[in-house]
Amino acid sequence: MYSCMKALQNSEHTTLIKDHFKYPKSAEYLMKIIIIIQPISFELTAELSISLERQLSKDFDALVRILPSIKDTLLPLDSFDKNRGQWKSNNILQWILDRKKTDGSVKILAICDFDAYSNHLNFVFGQATVDGRASAIYLPRLRQEFYGLKTNDSLFYQRIVKEAVHELGHAFGLSHCNKLTCVMHFSNSLRDTDIKENNFCNNCRTRL
Ligand SMILES: [Zn+2]
Ligand SMILES: [Zn+2]
To answer: Which residues have CB atoms below 5 A from the ion given as ligand 2?
Structure first.
């Protein structure tokens, strides 16, 4: 596991892309990588579902499937740290992997409406496994209300899309980028998330 710190290696993805050109159109379609979105304790609005589906299918040339929401009561109890009042992100990712056995052609992104931390970090906006099969983003700190500000759904949705693209960027092999406006720039605070765009810089895009 890692918290937005390391580059990922996903040779299977590279193989799929290379093989892409050898097959007729119908088979090529079947070779596409699938991104599964699993909301946990969160209902996606139609507007957010459409934004995510559009952005992720375009950025990763993937098929996007959004599953019905499940409740956090399904998660193992020891994934919650009672002293901190936060969930353990490493455990959440492991639970995702245990629940759905996937190969490298399926990437699962959990969208969780609860706060989480990982290792030495006080909190994480998101996290991905080193092999890229599982990733998660955590929503409470993406809301204006968390900071005592007025609700702004449009801004909230933009932040969700950016964090989703960022974590899946890791899942597809990208590491952090120094460019402030690139979606792969590390968000130390929400200000960093708001400064960056929801797109990859040219350098990151060519490495996808
Ligand atoms: Zn990261
Ligand atoms: Zn970049």
So the answer is: 177, 179, 182, 184, 201, 204
CA dihedral 159, 160, 164, 166 (to 10 degrees): 10
Quote the number of domains for the chain: 1
For residue 207, is it within any domain?
A: no
For 192, the domain range is 11-199
Q: List, by residue number, the catalytic residues.
A: 167
Q: Are 79 and 51 in contact (CB under 8 A)?
A: no
Q: How far is ligand 1, taken at its centre, from the CA of residue 100, in Å? A: 23
Q: How far is the CA of 204 from the centre of ligand 1 (A)?
A: 13
Of the CA atoms within 13 Å of residue 206, those in its CB half-sphere come to 2
For ligand 2, the distance from its centroid to the CA atom of residue 187, given in whole angstroms, is 13
In a domain, 208, yes or no: no
Instruction: Give the tens place of pLDDT for each residue, 96-152.
Output: 999 887 777 899 999 999 999 998 899 999 999 877 899 999 999 999 999 999 999
